[in-house]
């Protein structure tokens, strides 16, 4: 990656803003587009970006060597549909989207071979949104997944890998779009479904006086962006339905073990979960 | 509570040891019984206790004004059955047990009116066990629940409340044994079932390379003491079965909403879980 690479961030929210912060810290030129004048104002005033514009600005787009989309899935697809011809030839483009199968091939077909769209997913987030919460330190403990297709070049993959390295992600992995969506269906989407369900199953405001850390831990992510996650779930519907079914079947097994007071099997399940979980300790 | 109250801790594990540490810090005389010579040795050498004995010691029991049981449920019941007559008249006795309905009345009947057994539950724990991990600072953010019955006196309840206050628990609540076990079935036991189930549903050691914080948060408590929690679950079986059923029904509702792509209802569920969870923020 050349030192004079000019980055453009389209969609300056929590993630877009954190990318901007991390790239500026490394000395890169960063500009941004956002539909919210407030976000652009804030980012210019605080030095998160060098240049910015509200809505669409053909000149900023044409001047960029590398573009990072921080938009919601449908907004990303719509932007590409409308403005996909505005990039300079050779521009490298990536995103932050939490699902891949439904969007990557559509975007690559629309963009053709003049530019390279190489999809990626930073596994980082907060229960808050907006550029005012931008903080590139949230990448330090996080995984980063690159999801190339047959249309991508080694140079393109390498560029996004370098981007993740300079943003100091903890671990960088390469998966197909299908693998990514299966794994995300389990690790991220199913866990959000469980947290939301646990919070919705009963309304008892006074429970806060009796709770230990367990319930707090399991429901932290029940504070969820309703518009974004509805899009993500629907775009990964088949994978998520299968994950819910697998989990429900395992839960039904535990219920039966408890019902039958099968002490041996219950203890085996506890030892298995204990052993498996230890691998996830940081 | 008198300054010269002599405490005896029976079962010197993580919780028993943490009680000992907290009581010693406040200047009380603390002795302990444990079946493990190592635990007693360690506690004597490090000053967690003033006196200790391995197994049963009638003199230490008779000298105590206040007794705290840190045993597993069945071991507690067995100890009371065998040695229930060894307390001095007027001794006040409490416990740390995570279920109440199945044990409190049994213990109170066995002990009669010579002494007072007033049950309580410190909602604190770690994924480690043993006196070497004793740390009374784990009580600072924790809730404490007192579960009196009709056999308990105001003075008895007041004594255990003072105990919780001097150990610096964040919040002290009084519930019936039935209320306690219902609430614990939801807040603590169901959450452990979910974490264990999520960890058991698939064996994919490489998943650690792709995970975000969500999966780690939801499975932290999947590291679980198999012997203790099997006892706790079986002693609260009916409540826990009902909690599993309610959760499974709510999960099935979410599945249907996703299957039918009911965007309105999905977003309503997300907004509801977000709003409810905000009440649990510390």
Please tag this protein with its features.
homodimer, 9 strands, 282 residues, alpha/beta, 49% helix, 3-stranded mixed sheet
Per DSSP, the total helix count of chain A is: 11
Strand content of chain A: 5-15%
Oligomer: homodimer
Percent helix of chain A: 40-55%
Give the SSE order of chain A as H and E letters: EHEHEHEHEHEEEHEHHHHH
The radius of gyration computed from the alpha-carbon positions of chain A, rounded to a whole number of angstroms, is 21 Å
Spans of chain A of at least 5 consecutive residues whose pLDDT stays below 50 are none
Rough outline of chain A: elongated
Order of strands, main sheet of chain A, comes to: 3-2-1-4-5-6
Can you give the mean pLDDT of chain A? 95
For the largest interface in this structure, which chains are involved and how many residues does each contribute? A-B, 86 and 86 residues
Major beta sheet of chain A, specifics?
6 strands, parallel
**Which structural category do the helix and sheet elements of chain A fall into?**
alpha/beta
Distance between the termini of chain A: 31 Å
What is the count of β-strands of chain A?
9
